[in-house]
Design brief:
Elements lengths: L3 H16 L3 H54 L6 H34 L3 H24 L1
């Protein structure tokens, strides 16, 4: 994708071509711009979807740690603890840790591919937006 000035100058070229009767070129360029925009939107949507999956996995991981901790505390107090429940909690921890690690790698790769398709200016803007969103998320978690 191009920065805003390049896009606007591209639109001017397209409109000038249309004035000179080259409508086929106008349609081709319009389709090209639309195709690029659609592709970038789909890439961002996929990254967002993976981030949501990652948050879900981390939530499940936290619950599995909590369950395992509660079982261990019961055992420490000398209470009888179901070994199947303890084993199930351990398996859930391992499953969610593995899932979270894989999702983080997928997100990093999708993000790398997405950023490669942007201009340097657009990439900086995207990274600043991500940093802002991360900071807002952390701030909201602290205040809860």
């Amino acid at each position: 994708m191009k920065n805003l000035n390049d896009v606007l100058s591209g639109v001017d070229e397209v409109l000038n071509s249309a004035k000179h009767g080259n409508f086929e070129e106008v349609l081709t360029r319009t389709k090209s711009y639309a195709s690029k925009a659609t592709k970038k939107s789909a890439e961002r949507l996929e990254i967002s979807r993976k981030k949501i999956e990652l948050l879900d996995s981390k939530t499940k991981l936290a619950k599995a740690y909590e369950k395992y901790g509660a079982l261990q505390y019961q055992a420490h107090l000398g209470e009888e603890v179901d070994s199947d429940a303890t084993e199930g909690a351990l398996q859930e921890i391992q499953l969610q840790k593995t899932r979270a690690d894989l999702l983080e790698k997928e997100i990093a790769e999708l993000r790398r591919i997405f950023l490669e398709g942007l201009s340097k200016r657009e990439a900086r803007q995207y990274e600043k937006q991500e940093e802002k969103e991360t900071k807002e998320k952390i701030d909201s978690e602290i205040t809860e």
